[in-house]
TrEMBL record:
Superkingdom of origin organism: Bacteria
Protein name in the entry: Uncharacterized protein
Key words, A-Z: Membrane, Transmembrane, Transmembrane helix
Membrane spanning residue stretches: 7-26, 32-52, 59-80, 86-107
Length: 112
């Protein structure tokens, strides 16, 4: 039951963070903190799935926790490095989509 709830949170937060990040990138007047809150929910759900499935997932659980630590660092780095902003945005997007995929994989391994 916990796994299902965490997976729903991860899916919802990933979708919302993606849409809100895209809207921020397009210049729609949304507060960046809303996107950051959705991203934090995704990272927390990912880490929760990693902790629940650590015995069956093995190294993937540790990789998920590391991914959860890297995503906000790269996201915050976008704010200060104007010359590398496009590269950091692409990396942040890739890491976020990867986190959603790892959450799905962890949930499937936890069921097995």
């Amino acid at each position: 039951m916990k796994k299902q709830a965490l997976l729903i949170v991860a899916r919802t937060a990933a979708g919302a963070a993606l849409v809100l990040g895209l809207m921020h990138w397009l210049g729609v007047g949304l507060p960046l903190h809303v996107h950051m809150a959705c991203g934090a929910a995704l990272v927390l759900a990912l880490c929760g799935l990693a902790i629940l499935g650590r015995r069956r997932a093995g190294w993937l659980a540790w990789a998920a926790i590391a991914l959860g630590l890297v995503i906000p660092v790269v996201g915050m780095a976008q704010l200060g490095h104007a010359e590398m902003r496009a590269i950091l945005q692409a990396l942040h997007l890739s890491l976020g989509l990867g986190a959603a995929a790892v959450a799905e994989i962890l949930a499937k391994r936890f069921c097995a």
